[in-house]
User: Which sequence fits this backbone?
């Protein structure tokens, strides 16, 4: 059965649009996973429009982020940095057993001088029963973090072990202990009929098959999950949280504090990385609320690094058994996959195979998940896609080698028709940037006797990146000419605060310093959580709308002063003037002075036509493999990406290159290691769980294509293909095909030894 | 270096009795800043004998050019002292791994970069501590800080103070540092957003600007 095209363009909206409304297809992030849905929005033809790119002054230029000076001087206040009068510090105790009935004696902790409160986190729903390693089971608040840690150590936890499986092999074995009452191995696909694909495979002259293994990766945000609950009794609380969703906090916190959601304000001034792991308050947030409620003092709770690894999410691992049948002219005529997701007590993200290729012939994909007594996976940047990319891009290269065809030509043949031009243009550009033409051994490994061998590999990515209508933005113009843009949204380091500022400044003819963005507070206008690259396509059009409305409202006030109609006015840098008669003008300050002491305020909502969705990108990597030591050095990475209107070329480049770095790190270094017998997470720290450092970084080039569409979120696409390109480059260098990440020296040496024997 | 946390067997060593007794009896109010000096003397004594310091001690630290008294437990790291015990709190220095593997807590001790999570506050007595808050003078950013802004050396910004401190020390030694030297200088710092390429650009640009100015 062939798969649907990548976008369901012909799918109809649920009913006819109401008067003045229209239907648009939008991407909504559900826990970080982008899901396409229809949404009815105002039919805003004739509303705000992005100016032609060449006439833009601040938007789509290289603008240093407005909070840069705060970040380089240490003044930026992250949740970890919040300090309040009377504040106490809290830490959590983790279960050291993966599955157990836990009983706690908190008294020894409470006896320590300086420890103010200790609470159990296993009462209620779970009734003392812990089902995953590292689950927080108690929390302690004390006057210093050191004393809180003393308190955690003093708690006596007794574990009646229940039998556990922390590896998929153990969990899938006969008579394995039950991870939960749903069963350990869950079939996720309804269709199990392989007849068509088996016949097509049988009829294929060339067949390629293999099993790809993908480790569990950790988000490893440098600011661990943390929360400060400022509740001193009474009917109001302020909750500072390191979160990707300001508005995911107040409801839950209110529930725990016994308040109403509108009595809780969430604050996210700066946050130190999330990558999909920080939605909602989590068990640690609940713990902080319990302690604050008991003590009626501000409670500062952060996870230590080991807890962050154990109990704050991960990217699901998996195993992909793939088989492809290829015709002599290089067409994949049959594709069969058995996908097993490893998501701990969760199900893991879907690994969308056969990813972008081979969709229009016999395709059969069967998915299942195996549960273990480990922390649930969470969304992680591009959920499911980097996993699917790794096996599929490897399979593509293997098929191309098997039929003796050029790697790029083989991709061209097997790309879907509606995406062929896009991806081939991007792949060709990558090839040019990385020196593919001059590469001496394009479609075979370097078989010379050289010790150091250089190879090049390619891979591609897709993502939705559309927006939705959850944002409400306000722009305020004060009588003194100062301007504020307000939204409850959060800046994860993507530059949200900066584009809020540039969009408004550009619309009103102001300089950056004249506009102040105030974000990260739930008392400001609603905003979506930052998942699935949906923030900028949702927020930027809403900011633009608010700024547009503010400009029109100001024109109404100023028009009588200029003896013109509002519709005859235009904004120029620092002034408002009559378009047809430029000498009739008024300086910005004077225009604003005409406002009353209340200034003016304008609201903005999502404008579907200012956003778009559906992006593609390609990346290539050049590596050097030392065949004596097995060491891989990535020499160069290049990326070509489309993403509609780039809001800030400087920040976007950082984000694309950052994705490439994360992808390199995923490919070369990252892997959670657990001991199946002892039920221990062996590398829950930055010495043994390595992420890319300064000396691992290759030369990098990131190119954005000219793309006339509106704003599209790009972040996820950046992280999807890099590690696949690196794996392919390793094969192109030395002939060793690694089907298991991380792509480490030992595996390369084993592969080289096997090649010699074979 | 002696380890003030390690218990000391009183009976086996007679020589340090007076010092030990002094620390044991040292009330915060009674002993004042003298305790800090004594703690420093103890920590850096030529004798390798371990010394036990208990309770809270009052230390006088020199942070960003100003003297500041803090009351901490002897086990308190310089990192936690800066973040939790200084007034105002110096939270620019970040706590990420608390075991010397990420560099987010990097500060300068007598001009040299150190991990403040691996340094006890008592060991910083008598030494000049510089934190990220102390780099810019009279609010004017250093060349490196300016270059970090111009070249987008921060994304989430949580690792930024540590990188700025590590690379600052490198450029102070050698404004003509090569890319490899800059990479080595911050090889003890981790960034998860992947800002490294922009950090390197910023560092090289700052070095050029420093050389053009003929110094710092």
Assistant:
């Amino acid at each position: 059965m062939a798969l649907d095209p990548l976008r369901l363009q012909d799918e109809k909206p649920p009913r006819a649009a109401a008067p003045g409304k229209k239907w648009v297809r939008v991407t909504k992030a559900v826990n970080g996973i982008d899901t396409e849905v229809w949404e009815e929005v105002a039919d805003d033809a004739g509303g705000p429009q992005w100016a032609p790119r060449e006439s833009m002054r601040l938007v789509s230029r290289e603008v240093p982020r407005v909070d840069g000076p705060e970040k380089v001087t240490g003044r930026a206040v992250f949740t970890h940095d919040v300090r309040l009068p009377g504040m106490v510090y809290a830490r959590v105790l983790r279960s050291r057993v993966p599955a157990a009935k836990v009983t706690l004696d908190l008294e020894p902790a409470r006896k320590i001088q300086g420890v103010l409160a200790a609470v159990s986190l296993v009462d209620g729903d779970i009734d003392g029963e812990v089902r995953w390693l590292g689950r927080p089971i108690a929390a302690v608040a004390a006057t210093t973090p050191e004393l809180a840690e003393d308190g955690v150590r003093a708690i006596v936890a007794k574990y009646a072990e229940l039998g556990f499986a922390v590896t998929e092999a153990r969990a899938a074995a006969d008579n394995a202990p039950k991870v939960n009452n749903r069963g350990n191995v869950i079939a996720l696909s309804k269709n199990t009929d392989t007849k068509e694909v088996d016949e097509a495979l049988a009829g294929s002259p060339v067949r390629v098959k293999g099993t790809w293994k993908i480790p569990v990766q950790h988000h490893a945000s440098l600011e661990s999950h943390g929360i400060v609950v400022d509740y001193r009794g009474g009917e109001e609380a302020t909750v500072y949280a390191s979160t990707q969703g300001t508005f995911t906090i107040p409801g839950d916190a209110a529930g725990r504090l016994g308040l109403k959601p509108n009595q809780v304000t969430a604050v996210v001034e700066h946050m130190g990385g999330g990558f999909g792991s920080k939605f909602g308050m989590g068990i640690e947030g609940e713990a902080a609320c319990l302690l604050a409620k008991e003590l009626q003092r501000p409670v500062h709770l952060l996870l230590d690094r080991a807890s962050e690894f154990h109990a704050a999410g991960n990217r699901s691992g998996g195993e992909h058994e793939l088989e492809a049948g290829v015709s002599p002219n290089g067409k994949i005529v049959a594709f069969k996959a058995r996908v097993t997701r490893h998501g701990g007590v969760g199900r893991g993200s879907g690994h969308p195979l056969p990813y972008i290729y081979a969709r229009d012939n016999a395709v059969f994909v069967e998915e299942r998940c195996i549960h273990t007594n480990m922390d649930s996976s969470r969304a992680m940047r591009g959920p499911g896609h980097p996993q699917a990319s790794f096996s599929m891009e490897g399979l593509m290269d293997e098929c191309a080698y098997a039929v003796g065809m050029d790697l790029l030509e083989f991709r061209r043949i097997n790309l879907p028709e509606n995406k062929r031009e896009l991806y081939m243009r991007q792949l060709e550009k990558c090839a040019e940037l990385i020196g593919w033409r001059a590469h001496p051994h394009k479609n075979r490994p370097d078989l010379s006797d050289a010790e150091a061998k250089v190879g090049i590999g390619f891979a591609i990515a897709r993502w939705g990146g559309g927006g939705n209508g959850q944002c409400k933005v306000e722009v305020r113009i004060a009588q003194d000419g100062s301007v504020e843009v307000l939204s409850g949204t959060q800046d994860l380091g993507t530059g949200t605060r900066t584009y809020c500022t540039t969009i408004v400044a550009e619309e009103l003819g102001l300089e950056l310093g004249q506009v102040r963005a105030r974000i990260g507070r739930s008392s400001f206008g609603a905003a979506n959580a930052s998942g699935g690259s949906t923030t900028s396509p949702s927020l930027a059009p809403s900011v633009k709308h608010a700024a547009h409305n503010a400009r029109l409202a100001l024109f109404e006030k100023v028009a009588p002063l200029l003896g013109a109609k509002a519709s005859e006015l235009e904004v120029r840098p620092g002034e408002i003037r009559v378009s047809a008669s430029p000498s009739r003008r008024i300086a910005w300050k004077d225009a604003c002075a005409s406002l009353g002491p209340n200034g003016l305020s304008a609201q903005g909502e999502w404008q579907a036509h200012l956003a778009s969705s559906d992006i593609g990108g390609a990346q290539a990597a050049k590596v050097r493999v030392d065949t004596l030591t097995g060491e891989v050095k990535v020499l160069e990475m290049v990326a070509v990406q489309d993403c509609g209107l780039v809001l800030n070329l400087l920040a976007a480049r950082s984000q694309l290159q950052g994705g490439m770095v994360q992808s390199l790190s995923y490919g070369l270094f990252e892997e959670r290691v657990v001991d199946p017998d002892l039920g221990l997470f062996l590398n829950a720290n930055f010495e043994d769980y390595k992420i890319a450092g300064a000396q691992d970084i290759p030369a990098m080039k990131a190119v954005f294509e000219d793309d006339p569409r509106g704003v599209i979120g790009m972040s996820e696409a950046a992280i999807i293909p890099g590690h696949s390109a690196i794996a392919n480059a390793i094969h192109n260098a030395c002939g060793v095909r690694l089907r298991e990440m991380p792509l480490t020296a030992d595996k390369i040496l084993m592969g080289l030894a096997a090649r010699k024997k074979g | 270096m002696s380890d003030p946390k390690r218990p000391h067997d009183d009976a086996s060593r007679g020589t340090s009795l007076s010092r030990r007794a002094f620390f044991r009896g040292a009330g915060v109010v009674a002993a004042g800043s003298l305790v800090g000096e004594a703690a420093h003397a103890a920590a850096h004594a030529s004798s390798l004998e371990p010394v036990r310091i208990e309770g809270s001690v009052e230390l006088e630290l020199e942070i960003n050019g100003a003297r500041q008294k803090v009351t901490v437990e002897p086990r308190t790291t310089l990192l936690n002292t800066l973040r939790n015990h200084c007034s105002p709190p110096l939270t620019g220095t970040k706590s990420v791994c608390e075991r010397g593997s990420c560099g987010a807590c990097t500060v300068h001790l007598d001009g040299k970069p150190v991990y403040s999570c691996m340094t006890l506050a008592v060991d910083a007595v008598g030494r000049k501590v510089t934190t990220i808050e102390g780099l810019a003078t009279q609010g004017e950013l250093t060349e490196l800080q300016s270059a970090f802004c111009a070249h987008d050396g921060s994304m989430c910004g949580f690792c930024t103070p540590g990188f700025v401190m590590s690379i600052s020390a490198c450029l102070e030694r050698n404004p003509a540092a090569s890319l490899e030297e800059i990479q080595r200088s911050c090889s003890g710092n981790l960034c998860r957003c992947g800002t490294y390429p922009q950090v390197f650009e910023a560092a090289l640009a700052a070095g050029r600007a420093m050389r053009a100015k003929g110094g710092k």
Notes: The longest helix of chain B spans residues 196-212. Chain B touches chain A through 58 residues (CB under 8 Å). The helical segments of chain B are 17-25, 28-31, 34-43, 78-84, 143-150, 160-173, 179-185, 196-212.
